[in-house]
Amino acid sequence: MVRQTIRIIGIDPGLRRTGWGIVEADGSRLSYVASGLITSDSEDELAYRLRAIHEGLVGVIASFRPHEAAIEETFVNKDARATLKLGQARGMALLAPAQKGLKVAEYPPNVIKKTVTGTGHGEKGQIQAMVGFLLPKAKFESADEADALAIAICHANHRATERAVATRLLREAAR
Fold first, then answer.
1. Which residues are catalytic?
2. pLDDT (tens digit, 9 = 90+) per residue, 87-138?
3. DSSP string covering 113-167
């Protein structure tokens, strides 16, 4: 069986700051590729802030050419208006990779935290420390970038598990 390196973009959507992080997965081996932030001007109208997020992600995808994307699911908070705006930013984060035909996976925050830190309620500092441990060459300057890399790591781990289960099921069916 020939292994293939898969490039994954993790996206942590936000209206002010959208973090992105790219890793390569070769079996269980992970490598850091790049990470960054896409920001929007809080003085701009919502439509132009959403456009900035979309255009930024389209540019990152064009530059780094990932094969798959992973995005954090939206959590609901007490401020319905803020939740709605976050949902719209998340829509841009879903649209950009979908336009390029990438497989797009979504993960709840507690699954991402559990995958990276071992607990579903890990703190920001724990996530940053574990991302640094798992990707020693990673150069991230914000929690949003670290979160995006954690999302990509989560997807790399879950896609490997899914493939192993599918392979096992195919072998059992062939018997």
1. 12, 72, 144
2. 999 999 999 999 999 999 999 999 999 999 988 787 888 999 999 999 999 9
3. HHHHHSSTT--HHHHHHHHHHHSTT----SHHHHHHHHHHHHHHHHHHHHHHHHH
